[in-house]
Amino acid sequence: MEKITSLAKRRGFVYQSSEIYGGQNGAWDYGPLGIELKNRIAGAWWKEMTRLHDNIVGLDAAILMHPRTWEASGHVENFTDPLVDCKKCKSRFRADQIPQEALAAKKCPDCGGELTDTRKFNLMFKTHIGPAEDTASIIYLRPETAQGIYVNYKNIIQSNRMKVPFGIAQIGKAFRNEIVTKNFIFRTCEFEQMEMQYFVKPGTDEEWFSEWRKQRWAYYEKLGVKMDHLRWHQHGPDELAHYAKDAYDIEYLFPMGWRELEGVHNRTDYDLGRHTQFSGKDLQYIDQDNNNERYIPYIIETSAGLTRNLLMILCDAYDEEQVADKGNDDDWRTVLRFHPDLAPITVAILPLMKKDGLAELAQDIRTELKEDYATDYDQAGAIGRRYRRQDEAGTPFCVTVDYQTKEDGTVTLRFRDSMEQVRVPKTELAARIRSEIKAYKRIK
Ligand code: ATP
Fold first, then answer.
1. Model pTM?
2. Which long-range contacts (CB under 8 A, 24 or more apart) does 20-29 make?
3. Pocket (CB within 6 angstroms of ligand 1)
């Protein structure tokens, strides 16, 4: 994880927030490569969850919601972690994450000092809206994006004539006052979620639950993730959230071990039932194709962290490879083996020399490719070093412009994973890259 964190900073994927002031815990900034990667991961998910389904539509709800929302959802009452402090070293722990013997003996796992009693700590960030800081002005930063979907479900049925089963997808920020934030961007106080809520007829929920588990698994396969680094974890009775009938996590083998990447939950009619009760509005679905039968739909939720997905994609892509391409056994390269659809830069254009018109020729090629691809241009240093820099950024294709280009209009196309090079007429580059992306199969 240390290597990934340092590469992420060095290459401009992720920086610590407010670093010049010593950093802000639980918050991170996404640099030039990071924002590109994050946008592509979000784009791949959005395509998968909306464009490829005729009955799933998108939404972008506000982060600030009426405070009653969080009473209805159960978050005010239940969204807590058990917290203990060490009276001696002042360390703070989640009581469920330290050895239970230490907790029972009230002994700090770090220094052996005395621990406080366990108390419940609500993870929602609370603030005030308007100038008066009284209880009437309390407002929360949303701890999940899902509730924005539930409170809009009737609007969407009406405006888009949706029929059950149907889904609503949303990507957006969520905030949790996490007690322990560590492991880089794995668990942060400000993060992004990609959630899809699928509204189904009660009684068909178990079938849809298993269908969505299948689809979410297939999604990661399509992205070229190492499938032996993924597994399912079913929540036991003591893990199930207050709203869930059944829940499975997709876990990924991060450098610190198996951890949750995404949850697939059967949330039953809990949420819409509670919003009906708290808002006084009728949130039943009227099935016009079935004698106007009325019911509160069950909800199957797929809930993935976007920023956690980004960490997974970085870990999954990271590789150090002995290349020894110049007879030097000690020659290693660091390479990020991103799927070309996710790579922040798709094509880098490198003139062999700056002089003799090669730089201008390379710039012209870049201008042509720009319309279709995220490009980079690098003319500094030896060509081998430039390839290494692109490998480290995860760029799947490099185009080298040399003297032969001036003569016959061909360029060298170099592939990140195999390091193979082929000669291609520059007029065919865009199409060749497109077909390479379509045919891409992860080889390592
Ligand atoms: P955990 O048990 O890790 O706290 P959770 O079970 O509370 O997570 P959910 O409420 O199911 O998580 O949230 C869905 C997804 O949102 C998670 O699978 C994860 O990818 C992401 N997520 C949740 N909390 C955080 C966080 N603090 N930082 C980054 N991503 C998060």
1. 0.94
2. 25/181, 25/189, 26/178, 26/181, 26/187, 26/188, 26/189, 26/190, 27/188, 27/189, 27/190, 28/184, 28/185, 28/188, 28/307
3. 144, 176, 178, 187-188, 191, 193, 260-263, 303-305, 307-308
